[in-house]
């Protein structure tokens, strides 16, 4: 396989300056529509070209929106404003949407995030933004949020079956487990809603009608921050490089929430070896050749994904298998480990994309890596000393170590930064002893990239 670099090079500063000057002189004006779009004669999408074909298309879109009984707010850009933009600034966009799940009480955290996300990225693209809630959003939420977004905004009430127990779950058992985990102080252990949320993200959201027309989604949570500009379109990176899953950070899962997730994963791999991808990312998930889960997972509060994969038989078969095990409710399996395991065993690792230098922050972790040049070009305001990505508790170094033969880690990362198997005291001791040499990894025959034959071996390991 050809060598590929996973770091993103921002566009030249000349072009950034050019964009900025253009933006200053031609900021788009917009109108905030009220919900009664049927009466509106001025409806136009964010990127509007006044041709007969477009008019027909968008009239049809209004009708579809009304049919689906959604409350839809649209920002209206006047065509002449857009024409002043450099073409690259607004077009072409990728077939993608931003997505936030939020409660009404998340309003101010959401506004803070939107303001920041628009300033750092989306004012260049005006990507659509979908907001979903298990309850109706208040008028106040919709008005303030719409006012902050630069693209078309949609508010969705999640259909009840997508935020409820499936038939096969024993709700008494689930309640007992919540009570027990709550008593033990497991984070979110007592929360029913948290489990519905995890299931919704794991296997459901992309099936909602509103998502069907989009290929890519970028998940953004209330209260997260971006401390660097994104002077490029990550969706474009995904498409041009045929990537399926984009991530920033990879911390360790709380092991008490996934007590049997690994057993179920191995059972899946044993039962359906033909479904396991060659050259996959399995080795990322384990430090002992598959015996145990090392708790490494991509932190899904930042996630850029190709939803065609989520909607595929490959992923849905895997999700349904795990769903039936009941661990989402009887334990507290999160969407982050479920997505991470899914993309790691069902896809070649070359489909996974690390996004560096975003300055992304979700409490308590910060991604603040990058070269000096990137810090300048992207106007980062985070402290690199607080970077979690390449620190001891992070699994990102492991991702690059195990795929080192074909995947170059970013040049700016010092050579002495190594993955430490945090979750396992014995392995950690071994790694500390041989730190910098990588001998502990040889002990376990790394890099380990199981192909279909290897997947069968997993049964022998266990
Ligand atoms: N609508 C709705 N959103 C929720 C609920 N619980 C969590 N969320 C959203 O789900 C995402 C993850 O929840 P969060 O509390 O941040 O969990 P954490 O990131 O794992 O600590 C955030 O976007 C929340 O706004 C809920 O009960 N209803
Ligand atoms: Mg969160």
Automatic annotation (TrEMBL):
It is a single-pass type II membrane protein. Transmembrane segments: none annotated. One of its GO terms (cellular component) is Golgi apparatus. Keywords: Glycosyltransferase, Signal-anchor, Transferase, Transmembrane. It is found in: Membrane. Its main location: membrane. One of its GO terms (biological process) is cell wall mannoprotein biosynthetic process. GO terms for molecular function: alpha-1,2-mannosyltransferase activity. It holds the Pfam family Glyco_transf_15. It comes from the Eukaryota. The keyword Transferase applies. Belongs to the glycosyltransferase 15 family. This is Unnamed protein product.
């Amino acid at each position: 396989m050809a060598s590929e670099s996973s770091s993103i090079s921002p566009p030249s500063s000349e072009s950034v300056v050019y964009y900025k000057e253009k933006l200053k002189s031609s900021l788009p004006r917009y109108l905030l529509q009220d919900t009664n779009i049927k009466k509106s004669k001025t409806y136009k999408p964010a990127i509007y070209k006044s041709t007969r074909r477009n008019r027909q298309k968008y009239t049809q879109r209004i009708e579809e929106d009304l049919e689906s009984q959604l409350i839809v707010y649209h920002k209206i850009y006047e065509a002449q404003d857009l024409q002043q933009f450099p073409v690259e600034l607004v077009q072409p966009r990728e077939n993608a949407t931003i997505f936030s799940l939020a409660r009404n009480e998340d309003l101010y955290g959401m506004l803070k995030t939107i303001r920041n996300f628009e300033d750092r990225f989306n004012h260049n693209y005006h990507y659509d933004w979908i907001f979903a809630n298990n309850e109706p959003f208040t008028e106040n939420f919709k008005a303030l949020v719409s006012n902050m977004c630069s693209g078309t905004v949609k508010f969705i009430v999640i259909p009840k079956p997508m935020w409820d127990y499936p038939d096969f779950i024993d709700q008494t058992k689930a309640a007992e487990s919540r009570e027990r985990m709550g008593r033990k102080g497991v984070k979110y252990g007592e929360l029913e809603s948290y489990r519905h949320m995890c299931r919704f993200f794991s296997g459901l959201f992309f099936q909602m009608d509103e998502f069907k027309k989009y290929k890519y989604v970028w998940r953004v949570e209330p209260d997260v921050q971006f401390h660097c500009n994104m002077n490029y379109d990550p969706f474009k990176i995904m498409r041009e490089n045929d990537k399926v899953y984009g991530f920033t950070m990879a911390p360790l899962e709380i092991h008490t929430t996934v007590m049997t997730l690994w057993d179920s994963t191995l059972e899946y791999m044993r039962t359906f070896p033909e479904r396991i991808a060659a050259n996959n990312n399995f080795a990322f998930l384990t430090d002992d050749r598959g015996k145990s889960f090392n708790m490494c997972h991509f932190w899904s509060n930042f996630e850029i994904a190709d939803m065609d994969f989520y909607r595929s038989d490959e992923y849905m078969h895997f999700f349904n298998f795990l769903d039936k095990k009941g661990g989402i409710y009887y334990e507290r399996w999160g969407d982050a480990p479920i997505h991470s395991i899914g993309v790691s065993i069902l896809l070649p690792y070359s489909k996974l994309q690390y996004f560096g230098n975003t300055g992304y922050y979700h409490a308590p972790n910060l991604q603040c890596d990058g070269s000096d040049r990137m810090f300048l070009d992207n106007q980062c305001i985070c402290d690199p000393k607080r970077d979690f990505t390449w620190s001891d508790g992070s699994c990102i170094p492991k991702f690059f170590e195990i795929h080192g033969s074909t995947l170059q880690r970013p040049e700016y990362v010092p050579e002495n930064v190594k993955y430490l198997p945090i979750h396992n005291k014995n392995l950690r001791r071994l790694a500390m002893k041989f730190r910098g040499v990588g001998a502990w990894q040889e002990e376990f025959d790394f890099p380990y990239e199981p192909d279909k034959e290897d997947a069968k071996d997993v049964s022998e390991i266990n």
